[in-house]
Structure formats: structure tokens, C-alpha cells
Amino acid sequence: MAITLSHSTKSIKGTIDLTASKSVSNRVLIIKALCADDFKIENLASAKDTVTLNNLLFNNEEQFFDVGHAGTVMRFLTAYLALKKGEFIITGSERMQQRPIKVLVDALRDLGAKISYLKNEGYPPLKITGGFITGNEIEIDGGVSSQYISALMLIAPKIKDGLKIQFKNELISKPYINMTLEIMKDFGVDISWEEESIEIKEGEYRAKDFVVEADWSSASYWYGIAALANEAEVNLYGLSKNSLQGDAVAQDIYEKFGVETSFVENGIRLSKSLCHPIASSFDFDFENCPDIAQTVAVTCAALNLEAKFRGLKTLRIKETDRIFALQQELTKLGYNLDVDGDDLIINRYSEKTKNLNKWSNVSVDTYDDHRMAMAFAPLALLAPITINDENVVVKSYPDFWKDLEKVSFSN
Ligand SMILES: O=C(O)C1=C[C@@H](OP(=O)(O)O)[C@@H](O)[C@H](O)C1
Ligand SMILES: C=C(OP(=O)(O)O)C(=O)O
């Protein structure tokens, strides 16, 4: 179903209990499944991807695993099942069957795992005969998805004599690898990261209750809203200064667009007023924070900034080809973009093209991608906008539309 959003005052004031991080949640769930003793996870994400992983790990009597659209679940479970004795089939949505997994499968095979492709070489679905991992050292391409590396790290303490992961080339999405490392350390694992390798000692995960922090990727939509509002004061509860999430860089990015962040007792406060100055151009490499690129692209277009987005290579293999989707939808709204390889350039509109930006009754396609829906929603502060397929947000932020109502968006 489509949702048409509008906002009458352009003034945003409110307090939001921000949704929990699915990335943190999914790591802790795998650890829980590998840990000999039970522990409590507080504030586990309500994201569909996390609910799916929880069910597959703890409520699935079958040997068949369907992860739907959830990339981390596909990758983390593939490694997990390769470790576990038994014969399993793992698959996902049509899109998941187009998202590559060869780098991870090759690495697991190098360690002795028995995995075969059931449809297309290099892509899910997979048949996994688990329980054959014996190797202790692998070399892996770090430039496709960090999820492969996190998946290997998470199972590593359970491999006899541990694991050394050697990187063949530049790592992308590094903060996600660091998040995995820090969470594993928190659960008592002996792990170290030198420049080009990560070494994990064999050992047990030590049970301890864990509180999941709120999600900085989800916070980015609130930054997008604040940037386009005439004035804003929004409290986002559940976020902390010492976050494990690379997307916390949204604080620094949005300072350039006039949004100030302050840390308050239970989270952060975003403030924006028309007297906050904003930059006239923007140039940023999103290699370490790919999930907020769409949010920032929509903000830059709406603020009419000359902008260059670099480091977007991985966006092509996510829920959709996000570079293509952004270009299509922003062009539809009258903005002027170029794609140069994996870079996206947003051009400032001229006097001649300016009125193109006064769109009306435009509907934005989501390409089955939660981040398309949420990244474009702040545009409702400029003019009513229809987002086709409101339901996609369930993947990471099921209460997104309800939370928007709390600050007077109407639909
Ligand atoms: O490990 C994780 O939780 C994630 C890693 C990133 O993927 P890539 O490493 O494929 O960029 C990110 O885009 C994804 O949303 C979540
Ligand atoms: C890319 C994402 O998730 P995943 O790869 O886990 O499907 C995302 O949430 O933006």
C-alpha cells in the first residue's frame, strides 16, 4: 500500500524512543546461539530481519532456512550452519538470490565446509552439510561485503585452535567489522585486529545480559527531517556517545546542514533553526557508512547543494541497486543527478530548472528497499509526497510511520 505524507507547519518538536539496532541485535543473537549458557538480551530490535533470525535460530525445527530479504541473516547463518552438524538448505527472497555469497562460501570451503549452490553459482540458495570445519587460516577479499568477515569472526571461537582471517585487499564497511569485534570482546572472546588480519582464539562466549543500543541508521531519517524543517527540536532516546555503529557519523555530516546534536540524559537532541548556517557544497566518502547514503543524498538534493557521493560500490548489491534507485527517483522529482561509475553527483538546479522542483502528486517507488521509503519521507516537509509501498520499513524500523505521526506528519 502507498502512503501520502504531508506536514503543515514545517516545525518539528517531539521525543522518540528510537528503534533498536538490527546490526547489533543480529550479532548478539548468533552469540546467544553459540554460547553454552543462556543470557538475556534487552531491547532486541523489532526489525523484521532480527525477528527472522531469532525465529530461525531458536524456533525452527526444520533443516530449511528462509531469510527473506535479510542480508546479514543470510551471511551469518551460512557460517553458523557450516559449523553445526547436519544438512541444511538456506535460501531467501528473489533479491537475496541475486546478492552474492561466493566470497564467504569460498572462505568456508577453504576451512573444510561442504557447501553447494542449488541454483546459480555464487548465489543462494545453498545446501550446507555442516560440521566439517577444521582449518585455522583463510584469506578473504574484504572489498565486497564486510558481512562475510563478521560471519566468519562470529563462529571463529568455536573452531578448534581458532581462526586467522587475512585480508587480500582494502576493507569496506570497516565499522561493522569493528562492531563485531567489540561485541565479541564484550562476551569474553580473545580477538585482535592487526592491519591486514584478524586473529580469534578458540574459546567460549561468556554469558552476560546485554542491552542493545538504538539504531543510528534509523536516526539518520530524523536528521534528514531536521535538516528540511524550518525549526526542529527532537529527542531521540536510546542512542549513546560511545556507539558501536559507524552511522553515528550522521552527527558530523548533518552539522554541515545546520542540524546540531547534543547528548542528553537518555539519548541525543537534534536542533535546527533557520539561523543555523549550512554548507553550499558537500563531498563525502560513504565507504564506512553505506546505509546512510540515501538519506544524505535526498537531503542534499532538497537543500540544492552541489554534492559528490563517493565510495558507493556496495550500494549496488544491497536490497536493490541503490545508486540506480536514487537516480531514478530524484530525477523524477526534478533534481539533476549524474552517476560516474560508483560515484553519485547531485547538481545544483539552475534558475531555469528551479520550478521543476515544485513537484506535486509525485509518488516515489521503493524498489523493495526500506531505506528508499525512509530516505524520501522527509521531503514531505517541502510538499506532500506519496511513498509507494509503506510496508517495506518493517525490515529495520517497523514503527517509522507511527513515529512520524508523533511529530505531526499526516498520512
Ligand atoms: O554487518 C552488518 O550488520 C551490516 C553491514 C553492512 O553491509 P556491507 O558490509 O555489505 O556493506 C550494512 O550495509 C548492512 O546494513 C549491515
Ligand atoms: C543493507 C542492509 O541490510 P542487509 O544487507 O542486512 O540486508 C540495510 O539494512 O541497509
Automatic annotation (TrEMBL):
It catalyses: 3-phosphoshikimate + phosphoenolpyruvate = 5-O-(1-carboxyvinyl)-3-phosphoshikimate + phosphate. One of its GO terms (cellular component) is cytoplasm. Residues 9-57, 60-404 form the Enolpyruvate transferase domain. The active site is at residue 291. Keywords: Amino-acid biosynthesis, Aromatic amino acid biosynthesis, Cytoplasm, Transferase. Pathway: Metabolic intermediate biosynthesis; chorismate biosynthesis; chorismate from D-erythrose 4-phosphate and phosphoenolpyruvate: step 6/7. Phosphoenolpyruvate binds at residues 22, 71, 99, 147, 322, 371, 395. One of its GO terms (biological process) is aromatic amino acid family biosynthetic process. GO terms for molecular function: 3-phosphoshikimate 1-carboxyvinyltransferase activity. It comes from the Bacteria. It is found in: Cytoplasm. InterPro entries: Enolpyruvate_Tfrase_dom (IPR001986), Enolpyruvate_Tfrase_sf (IPR036968), EPSP_synthase (IPR006264), EPSP_synthase_CS (IPR023193), RNA3'P_cycl/enolpyr_Trfase_a/b (IPR013792). 3-phosphoshikimate binds at residues 22-23, 27, 145-147, 173, 291, 318. Its EC number is 2.5.1.19. Catalyzes the transfer of the enolpyruvyl moiety of phosphoenolpyruvate (PEP) to the 5-hydroxyl of shikimate-3-phosphate (S3P) to produce enolpyruvyl shikimate-3-phosphate and inorganic phosphate. Belongs to the EPSP synthase family. Monomer. This is 3-phosphoshikimate 1-carboxyvinyltransferase. It comes from Vicingus serpentipes. The lineage of its organism: Bacteria, Pseudomonadati, Bacteroidota, Flavobacteriia, Flavobacteriales.
